[in-house]
Amino acid sequence: MLYEIIGIARPGNLAEVKEIVLTAGQLILRNGGVIRDINNWGVFMLPTPVSRHQVRHTRGHYFALRYDAGVATHQTVRDTLAVDPRILRTAGVRLGDGKLETLSKFGKIPWKEFE
């Protein structure tokens, strides 16, 4: 199945975001998955302030990870990201119904540039 995870990490250190994505990517690849796309969206204001590990955050570093993997692998990636203290929030979704014709419609992860 094709999955997409959008994560929000603590802002300020790009190396931390790279480590988080590297860890998730290694989990996916080790379990027979395929990484389709990785996007670094940058630092943005959060819609509402988030308290995580006794620190209140108003900004977050957004990233998106799209991959093919099994249900168990997806759950492992979500669980791993959930316990990482550098992650503020994650959201994961399954894209399509698993059929090739449906999956071919999903291209690059879009990001709208504001003027």
TrEMBL record:
Pfam families from the UniProt entry: Ribosomal_S6
An example Gene Ontology biological process: translation
Top-rank lineage group of the source organism: Eukaryota
Cell location: Mitochondrion
Main location: mitochondrion
Keywords: Mitochondrion, Ribonucleoprotein, Ribosomal protein
Keyword Signal: no
Keyword Transmembrane helix: no
Any GO MF annotation of the entry: small ribosomal subunit rRNA binding
Any one annotated GO CC term: mitochondrial small ribosomal subunit
Family membership noted in the UniProt record: Belongs to the bacterial ribosomal protein bS6 family.
Record function comment: Component of the mitochondrial ribosome (mitoribosome), a dedicated translation machinery responsible for the synthesis of mitochondrial genome-encoded proteins, including at least some of the essential transmembrane subunits of the mitochondrial respiratory chain. The mitoribosomes are attached to the mitochondrial inner membrane and translation products are cotranslationally integrated into the membrane.
Protein name stated in the entry: Small ribosomal subunit protein bS6m
Species per Swiss-Prot/TrEMBL record: Schizothecium vesticola
